[in-house]
Design brief:
alpha+beta, globular, eight-stranded mixed sheet, about 325 residues, three-stranded antiparallel sheet, BirA Bifunctional Protein, domain 2, 11 strands
Length: about 325
């Protein structure tokens, strides 16, 4: 079976109608239902969120927003439903949703897509509870694939032994420890640098090959509403989940519940600096700021990039192999 051809975005309708992609579809279906089974079994409620939004639907990099003329008003294709999920927390303890995240990435490579399915949840709870739910969700996805698509996994060259490490306790290191592990190697980076794909895979290998949480990133390189650590205000209570093959597949964090600190961090963020130069006013964030001011509840959540989980489980080197219609700057279907 020629899996390498699935990296191509040409002739996609033909490629996805072969035996290989039939198997990939069934594995992806099992992964998806594994996540949903976890959410239902652990008391998470599905809610809808908008996919055409103000800038409040953006992630850190606002330069990757798709802009849309909404009857004379500036609107954007959503990158995340996070802030809209958070708005449900005063009434619901645990909520989840799934959106098509749209990111205008000019880069065409084996890791990035311009659109992909993003599973997101928010819950009333702190950092330890958050990581337990992230780990539980990903394990449920993998277990679902092993249980419900074993023949398809075998057809694609993956055995239960290949996935055994995903079902063991995930490893955890801090960002500071990650920097230390890279010190003295060709991939050495300084404090405050973001970690690239090569760093991520090196760290997974260095810690035994299991899925790896990297925690407590510098606040300067993370989203404005990630909760500042109360013992060390240089970092936030955040965690990226790094998977074999695909790298970062989940971004997660506690959300800032101190209104004054939240507003201060928003105004000081590089994101807001860029937006304000483009004429975006603070009022665009007023609904969210008011929500936190009036409902200061400790809560946390995450976004799970479905194609990166799929790529990792399937052992593929290229995210396009795990996606029916991989959209990038050079493709349109």
């Amino acid at each position: 079976m020629e899996l390498e051809t699935l990296k191509s975005t040409d002739g996609r309708f033909g490629l996805i109608n072969g035996t290989a992609f039939e198997a990939i579809d069934r594995v992806n279906d099992a992964l998806y239902w594994g996540a949903l089974d976890y959410f239902r079994g652990n008391g998470f409620m599905w809610v809808d969120v908008p996919t055409l939004t103000r800038v409040t639907g953006a992630c850190e990099n606002v330069d990757t927003l798709y802009s849309v003329d909404h009857f004379g008003r500036n609107a954007y294709l959503a990158q995340t439903g996070q802030l809209y999920l958070e708005a449900k927390i005063p009434r619901h303890e645990k909520v989840w949703t799934v959106i098509t995240s749209s990111r205008a990435e000019a880069k065409v490579d084996a890791r990035h897509l311009n659109q992909f399915q993003l599973l997101e949840f928010e819950h009333r709870g702190g950092f330890e509870s958050l990581l337990n739910h992230v780990e539980g969700t990903v394990k449920a996805m993998v277990a679902g694939a092993v249980a419900n698509a074993p023949g398809e996994l075998a057809l694609l060259g993956r055995s239960p032994a290949d996935l055994a490490e995903y079902l063991k306790p995930f490893n955890r290191i801090s960002y500071a420890e990650a920097i230390g592990l890279l010190e003295g190697t060709p991939l050495e980076v300084g404090w405050g640098s973001d970690l690239k794909h090569s760093h991520e895979l090196r760290l997974v290998a260095a810690t035994g090959g299991r899925p790896l949480f990297i925690t407590h990133f510098p606040k300067a390189i993370k989203f404005f509403n990630m909760r500042v650590n109360r013992s060390d205000d240089s970092v936030v209570n955040s965690a990226d989940l790094i998977l074999p093959h695909s790298g970062e597949a989940v971004g997660s964090a506690e959300r800032e519940d101190d209104y004054a600190l939240l507003k201060e961090r928003l105004l000081a963020s590089s994101m807001y600096s860029i937006l304000s130069k483009r004429g975006v006013a603070l009022s665009e964030f007023e609904d969210y700021l008011s929500l936190v001011r009036d409902n200061p509840i400790l809560h946390s959540g995450c976004g799970i990039g479905f194609p990166r989980v799929s790529q990792s489980v399937l052992g593929f080197s290229d995210i396009r192999q795990a996606t029916s219609y991989p959209l990038n700057a050079e493709t349109l279907y």
